[in-house]
Amino acid sequence: MFKSTQALFGGLLWKTPWRLSSPQKARQRKRLRSVDRVVDTVSAALERNGQTSKAVSRWFAEMPREEEMLPKDKYTLFDKKEKSYRKSIHKLPKWTRVSQRVNPPGF
Amino acid sequence: MSYFRITLVRSAIGLPRRSTDVLKALGLKKLFHSVSPSVAGQIMKVKELVQVEECQYRLTKQEVHLERKPDPGYYTEKSCSEQRGELGGQ
């Protein structure tokens, strides 16, 4: 049944909050740490066997760890269309299952 | 010889085809993969979706099942066959 709510009736009304809540941020940190843990395990195992992997060494060279990241980079990402050049990370499609850690320098 | 124990914890639904294909290639029914650069590269492709441990040996399917088995909450002091044997002897 059609229920005339502001969101359905009035055209432009976005129900997605513009910022993350604190539990969302906590879970984001948890996910970042779990990815770090996976990469650490893989690289430690390879090292013990005397092997290297290009993907792993590249990750260590390019990506910051969770504790090294600024809050700004953990919870927001670069967007050229925003006034402040930043939008909240939950606007990124599939944001809980992709790694988005670095942003353009200077932004 | 050590192994990666890979567990799928998040789904690849809605992610690029590549991630699904990597998961299929890893064949996570197999669970244990020997440590090698090619497996490491595959894990790196789906690192957000899996949990990885390093093991020294492959557990059998039975052992993995027993790991997950809950505590039954009771224990038998004597098995039935033993008791029956005693009764038969009397």
UniProtKB/TrEMBL annotation, chain A:
GO cellular component terms, A-Z: mitochondrial large ribosomal subunit
Gene Ontology molecular-function annotations: structural constituent of ribosome
Keywords from the UniProt entry: Mitochondrion, Ribonucleoprotein, Ribosomal protein
Main location per the UniProt record: mitochondrion
Pfam families from the UniProt entry: L31 (PF09784)
GO biological process, one term: mitochondrial translation
Subcellular location: Mitochondrion
Keyword Ribosomal protein assigned: yes
Signal sequence interval, chain numbering: none
Subunit structure: Component of the mitochondrial large ribosomal subunit.
Designated name of the protein: Large ribosomal subunit protein mL60
